[in-house]
């Protein structure tokens, strides 16, 4: 897919799914602004994915729970590349745990990280996306269809992303802006490794046993890769996608059982 002449912001892209998405877009020729909290990590990722990519890669350190950081991220992108054509909303997962383990501070932080950051990024990028149409892709979780035990914070706020995206697909269609959401299942990232480790410790078993158990419930019998996930996002962000908006796609190897 050809992204020549396009500019993309990929939030939370110093590792995992965000990094894979940024790399896919840069390999297609897009100018990509990556972001994360740690500047040194971003510098290394820029060098790694930008060295052989036809697209330019820049970075901006940003804490997605801070509105001023989000404003700076979008402003720096426009200063560098002139506009924003593609916005990929992404964020790290909130704490694992059950309802009684969390107080107001935990709920507030999860809200700011996993839902409010998406709202703020869309609001900041919207004036530029409206210029010639654009793409907004929100990264959520398979939990929006089938809540995951022990992840009540994620289950709550990831579901909010779906309502936001569907409503925006109506409101932004007149401007030629397509809004879609992509939900990962068990994609092999540091986040999934962390969750498997927590599960293993609670159950008193090895991480390998947890992984085998998880894989047994996936029709394809394996975890997915970030690169496989990124291909789906790249399609939605590309000019090949001309008529898909307001949709929620699952990249989960068939794990979600509901229709």
TrEMBL record:
Annotated protein name in UniProt: SDR family NAD(P)-dependent oxidoreductase
Keyword Oxidoreductase applies: yes
SUPFAM superfamilies xrefs: NAD(P)-binding Rossmann-fold domains (SSF51735)
Superkingdom: Bacteria
GO molecular function: oxidoreductase activity
Pfam family, one: adh_short_C2
Similarity comment text for this entry: Belongs to the short-chain dehydrogenases/reductases (SDR) family.
InterPro entries: NAD(P)-bd_dom_sf (IPR036291), SDR (IPR050259), SDR_fam (IPR002347)
Organism: Caldibacillus debilis
GO biological process: bile acid metabolic process
Lineage: Bacteria, Bacillati, Bacillota, Bacilli, Bacillales
Record key words, sorted: Oxidoreductase
């Amino acid at each position: 897919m050809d992204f020549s002449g396009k500019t993309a912001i990929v939030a939370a892209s110093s590792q995992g799914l965000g990094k894979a998405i940024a790399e896919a877009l840069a390999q297609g020729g897009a100018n990509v602004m990556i972001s994360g909290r740690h500047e040194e990590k971003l510098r290394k990722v820029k060098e790694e994915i930008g060295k052989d990519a036809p697209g330019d890669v820049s970075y901006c350190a940003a804490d997605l729970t801070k509105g001023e950081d989000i404003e700076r991220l979008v402003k720096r992108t426009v200063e560098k590349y002139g506009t924003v054509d593609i916005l990929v909303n992404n964020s790290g997962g909130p704490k694992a745990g059950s309802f009684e383990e969390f107080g107001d501070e935990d709920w507030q932080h999860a809200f700011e990280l996993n839902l409010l950051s998406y709202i703020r990024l869309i609001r900041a990028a919207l004036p530029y996306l409206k210029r010639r149409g654009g793409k907004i892709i929100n990264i959520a979780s398979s939990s929006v269809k089938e809540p995951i035990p022990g992840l009540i914070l994620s289950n709550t706020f990831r579901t909010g992303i779906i309502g936001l995206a569907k409503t925006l697909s109506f409101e932004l269609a007149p401007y030629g802006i397509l809004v879609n959401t992509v939900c990962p299942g068990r994609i092999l990232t540091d986040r999934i490794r962390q969750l498997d480790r927590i599960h293993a410790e609670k159950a008193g078993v090895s991480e390998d046993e947890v992984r085998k158990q998880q894989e047994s419930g996936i029709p394809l019998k394996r975890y997915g890769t970030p690169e496989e996930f990124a291909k789906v996002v790249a399609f939605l962000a590309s000019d090949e996608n001309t008529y898909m908006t307001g949709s929620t796609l699952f990249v989960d190897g068939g794990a979600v059982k509901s229709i």
